[in-house]
Amino acid sequence: MTRPGTLTALYPGSFDPVTLGHEDIARRTLRVADRVIVAVAAASTHAKTPAFPLEERLEMLREVFADEPRIECTSFEGLLVDFVRESGAGFVVRGLRAVSDFEYEFQMAQMNREMDPDMEFIFLTPDVNLAFLSASLVREVARLGGDVSPFVSPSVLKRLRATFGGRT
Ligand code: ADP
User: Fold this and answer.
1) Does residue 104 surpass a pLDDT of 80?
2) Beta carbons within 8 Å of 118's beta carbon, 6+ residues apart
3) Alpha-carbon span 83 to 123, nearest angstrom
4) How many CB atoms are closer than 10 A to CB 116?
5) By CB neighbour count within 10 A (0-12 exposed, 13-18 middle, 19+ buried), where does 117 fall?
6) Which of 42, 124, 155, 167 could form a disulfide with 63, with the two C-beta atoms 3.0–4.6 Å apart?
7) pLDDT at 25
8) What domain range is 32 assigned to?
9) What is the pLDDT of residue 8?
10) Is 152 touching ligand 1 by the criterion CB < 6 Å?
11) Does any ligand 1 atom lie closer than 6 A to the CB of residue 136?
12) Which of the four pLDDT bands, split at 50, 70 and 90, describes residue 133?
């Protein structure tokens, strides 16, 4: 739970798996919040079967943020609005890579706002070198045996190798 006077940000996503782009957004959020809760959504908006089960996605997140006590990793089921209230977060953070992200993010924010008028969203842009990166592209390249070492942390790379084999 959040202590009074502490500004907490909630960063929800599917993180299948966590990439350097996600890491960049979560660490950047610490510039505007005291702590960040990175939360894996059990009911993903991407209807596809995930490459990694929820527990493993959470383990990978905990591994990559093990050095940062201000970042806590968890998962949630159900509506984001309910979890925001439950966690005591002051706002939700999302990453914006390009105009292509905007429409979906805008719709999601407005829909959540309909359900809870107090809900605030903050959108952060990643380092320019990470702006093209998506978890789905990482999965695709790994599945086809390509090298994804520039896009994920070493602990995530190990899991990708275990899951997909090849040169990943
Ligand atoms: P993805 O879109 O990679 O499958 P998620 O559904 O887990 O990832 O996305 C969670 C949030 O992280 C979204 O707001 C998404 O726009 C953002 N995000 C994902 N990759 C990046 C990146 N490379 N740079 C900035 N934000 C990102």
Assistant:
1) yes
2) none
3) 19
4) 14
5) exposed
6) 155
7) 98
8) 8-128
9) 98
10) no
11) yes
12) very high
Q: Would residue 149 count as lying in a domain? A: no
Q: Which pLDDT tens digit goes with each residue over 106-124?
A: 999 999 999 999 999 999 9
Q: How confident is the model at residue 165 (pLDDT cuts 50, 70, 90)?
A: confident
Instruction: Confirm whether 111 is domain-assigned.
Output: yes
| Residue 26 is assigned to a structural domain of this protein | yes
**How far apart, in Å, are the Cα atoms of 66 and each of 69, 77, 141?**
7, 23, 26
> Which pLDDT value is given to residue 151?
97
Identify the three-state secondary structure at position 136.
helix
For the CA of 133, the closest atom of ligand 1 is 23
95 lines ligand 1 (CB under 6 A): yes
Which numbered atom of ligand 1 lies nearest the CA of 95?
Answer: 26
pTM, entire model = 0.93
CATH number for the domain that contains residue 43: 3.40.50.620
Confirm whether 89 is domain-assigned.
yes
Average pLDDT of the residues in 37-62: 88
Atom in ligand 1 nearest the alpha carbon of residue 93: 14
| CA 115 – CA 118 distance, rounded (Å) | 9
Number of domains in the chain: 1
Q: Which residues contact 37 (CB under 8 A, 6 or more apart)?
A: 8, 9, 10, 11, 71, 72, 73, 74, 87, 89
pLDDT class for 2, splitting at 50, 70, 90? low
